[in-house]
């Protein structure tokens, strides 16, 4: 193999590289490929186009905020490999990085050289103070995962896509089973624009991502990222605690019970079958004690998956959701879709 040359991204590289690379290793690789493009931010003079992705997991689609650098490797004038590093507004403490090399050029140091050049470029990223920390996302058991491990990246988080079958959990009984005399039902459809819901989602996302702390998420930002039409939010249902009155049990409460858990559903493709599983973000009020949080999440999951299949992204940091899902996986009442997805970082 002749000595390779390295250069910035040029128009048309995507078409040539995709023809050579073939299918992506997984959803994360496909999203990273979409980030390949001309340098952006600082003196590059272009805006980097990043898209938010529904779900609770930190992903390569984590809203890019303007700075990126891309390097392409050429073999006798033909692009054979590329790498990109870019910043994101939701998780600003690390930069996303991705490298892909054509199969017949692997194990020849090309990926290592691309990563070295990306690290060098990343040192000039805004807010990095000359030393950028990187993260990436890989499917377990793939060449990408082996490459990341060999280059010193360690697993920061594991996530799994889980399909819960209809009726996997017994339909719960909330309250006394009748809600008699309670002017506020314990299960409620809630508008995705609700301030109460947006606040709960923002605090939940921040808590389960303490391992890679996000920037502060306001109510408006939470609506944009997780609850807007652009994010694909389709509807929401919440589980509440029984309402109580400050004037005693004999007086009707003036307010609804506090929110315990929430489920936000996302619209699937227009071509999806009517019985296709719903993609759902399922979380809880972060101020609940652990046992109460687990009980609330399990109850709401049983309700939303009673008649229809539900697809969830389950990260190891989501302890209440794991407590509900892992027994179902062990009993064969839920299925993991694809390999573990690993967020790795240096």
UniProtKB/TrEMBL annotation:
Residues 4-172 form the N-acetyltransferase domain. InterPro entries: Acyl_CoA_acyltransferase, GNAT_dom. It comes from the Bacteria. Gene3D superfamilies: 3.40.630.30. Residues 40-65 are annotated as: Disordered. It holds the Pfam family Acetyltransf_7. CDD domains: NAT_SF. This is GNAT family N-acetyltransferase.
């Amino acid at each position: 193999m002749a000595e390779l040359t390295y250069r910035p991204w040029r128009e048309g590289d995507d078409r040539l590289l995709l023809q050579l690379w073939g299918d992506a290793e997984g959803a994360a690789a496909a999203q990273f490929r979409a980030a390949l493009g001309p340098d952006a931010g600082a003196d590059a003079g272009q805006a980097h186009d990043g898209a938010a992705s529904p779900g609770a997991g930190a992903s390569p689609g984590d809203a890019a905020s303007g700075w990126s650098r891309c390097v392409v490797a050429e073999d006798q004038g033909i692009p054979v490999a590329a790498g990109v590093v870019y910043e994101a507004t939701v998780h600003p403490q690390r930069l996303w990085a991705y490298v892909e090399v054509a199969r017949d050029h692997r194990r020849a140091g090309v990926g290592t050289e691309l990563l070295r050049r990306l690290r060098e470029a990343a040192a000039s990223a805004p807010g990095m103070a000359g030393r950028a920390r990187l993260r990436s996302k890989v499917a377990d058991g793939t060449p990408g995962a082996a490459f990341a491990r060999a280059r010193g990246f360690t697993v920061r988080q594991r996530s799994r896509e889980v399909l819960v079958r209809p009726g996997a959990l017994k339909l719960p009984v909330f309250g006394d089973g009748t809600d008699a005399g309670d002017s506020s039902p314990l299960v409620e459809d809630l508008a995705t624009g609700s301030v109460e819901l947006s606040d709960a989602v923002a605090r939940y996302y921040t808590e389960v991502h303490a391992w890679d702390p996000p920037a502060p998420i306001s109510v408006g930002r939470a609506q944009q990222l997780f609850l807007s039409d652009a994010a694909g939010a389709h509807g929401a249902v919440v589980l509440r605690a029984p309402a109580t009155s400050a004037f005693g049990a004999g007086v009707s409460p003036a307010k609804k019970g506090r929110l315990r858990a929430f489920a936000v559903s996302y619209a699937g493709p227009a071509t999806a079958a009517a019985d296709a599983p719903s993609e759902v973000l399922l979380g809880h009020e972060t101020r609940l004690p652990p046992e109460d949080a687990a009980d609330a999440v399990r109850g709401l999951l049983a309700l939303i998956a009673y008649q229809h299949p539900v697809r969830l992204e389950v990260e190891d940091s989501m302890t209440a959701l794991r407590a509900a899902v892992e027994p179902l996986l062990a009993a064969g009442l839920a299925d993991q879709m694809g390999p573990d997805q690993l967020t790795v970082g240096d």
